[in-house]
Amino acid sequence: MKFALAIVLFIALPQIALGADVMVRYEHNYWKANSQSTIFPLNRDEQTSQVDVQQYYDRGVVSATLEEDRVALKEATYQSSWGNWETTVGKAYLAWDWSYSRRPLDLFGQDQSLLPQGQWLATADWLGASRTWTVACTSDSETQESPWQLSSPFCALRHYQLIGALEWQSVAFGNEDTWGGGLGFTWVPLDALELHGSLRGQQEFQFEQADLSTETQTGGWFGLIGGHWTFNNETQVMVEWHYDQGGWTKADWQNHQDMIAAMPPIPEALTGFAERLSNPYLYRQQVFFRIDKTFDWLHPEVFGFWQPEMNSASITSQITIEPDNELSLTAGYKRYLGDLWPHQEGWYAAVEFELLEEQ
User: Fold this and answer.
1) Sign (positive/negative) of CA torsion 33, 35, 40, 42?
2) Burial grade of 25 (CB within 10 A; 0-12, 13-18, 19 or more)
3) 3-class secondary-structure state, position 313
4) For residues 67 and 49, what is the distance between their CA atoms, to the nearest angstrom?
5) pLDDT, position 21
6) pLDDT at residue 277 is higher than 90
7) More confident: 274 or 85
8) Is the pLDDT confidence value at 195 over 50?
9) pLDDT of 16 over the 50 cut
């Protein structure tokens, strides 16, 4: 009852007070893991549900995830502008990178499924006809859960420019502990072809050892390159290749497996290992692939990750039905393949709808 009441209040009150456009998404997941191997005798069934709510109003956005009796605030921003300047304060996610599956240049917050996780920050943007300068600072690093985490506080400077069919950007960032920079681009040389890439270098980063201890290393790189092609029948194919110096090589994974194999078969440890396999930051090299097609009201797609060093992959099949512009229904199936994985698979279903402000 408390969960249902929280949903009603979160949706209704800002809608009444601010006249905001509201998006609501309910998702239910069923996860099954089963392995009879001597190394990973893992057997678990789990079900989870959550509600995502996102509201846009004239001066910003508010979003949150509601799971059981817990509410997690994702974003809450206030924006103002004068002349060529625009400022933002609050909890925000800055989507600087143009990549799809991994985003090296997203320094502030993390892109997490439907709703991104923001950070408490303040930004100032100067907006020109074909270029933008941005200064952003934060004292919050709790959402940067990766080898490239920047401890608080830190600041960043970004320059963006549009030149014909090419968009490019450069960033510089740092604090008292480390510093770094990066470059990114997206280019549309043909109507059917888009190419993009990102590269981030950092003076220090955190490398997790096979025994799960953390070591500070110097001179790390994290980048990707990719693109997508659109066919005449509206079928799209996307491919991205990642290189992450903070991720594990085949030898690192083998050392971790050997460590788990030497332990007693504790369910919590095995479950933790299975969850670690799905962490995209733990692989030195990955290839992301996606194939999707759009009909009038139907959108099927297949996407996943392939880890070439381990000859393993995760594949998701998903179908979305949109009977109108304000309602969508999604169902999907995800499975892990390869010698590295315990047998794991999961189903999920979601419904999403919008409450639009009347003009």
Assistant:
1) positive
2) buried
3) strand
4) 7
5) 79
6) no
7) 85
8) yes
9) no
Alpha carbon 110 to chain centroid, angstroms: 6
Q: Residue 216's pLDDT is what?
A: 86
C-alpha of 85 from chain center = 28
DSSP line for 137-177: EES--TT--STT--PSSEEEEEEEEEETTEEEEEEEEE-SS
Mean pLDDT value across residues 285-301: 93
Sign of the CA dihedral with 228 first, then 25, 105, and 224 last: negative
Tokens of 71: 């509410």
Q: Are 2 and 69 in contact (CB under 8 A)?
A: yes
What is the C-alpha separation between 73 and 224, in angstroms, rounded? 30
Residue from 349, 354, 348 nearest 324 by CA: 354
Q: Residues near 98 by Cβ (< 8 Å), separated by ≥ 6?
A: 167, 184, 185, 186, 196, 198
Q: What distance in Å separates the CA atoms of residue 278 and residue 114, rounded to the nearest whole number? A: 17
| Average pLDDT value for residue range 156-184 | 96
Whether 25 contacts 11, CB under 8 Å: no
**Residue 278: which residues within 8 A CB-CB, separation 6 or more?**
314, 336
Where is pLDDT greater, at 7 or 311? Answer: 311
144, pLDDT greater than 80: no
- As a whole number of Å, the CA-based R_g of the chain is 22
Q: Look over the chain and give the mean of its residue pLDDT values, rounded to a whole number.
A: 83
3-state helix, strand, coil in the chain (%, to 5): 10, 60, 30
Asked whether the predicted pLDDT for residue 129 surpasses 90, the reply is: yes
Nearest C-alpha neighbor of 186 from the set 150, 154, 215, 162: 162
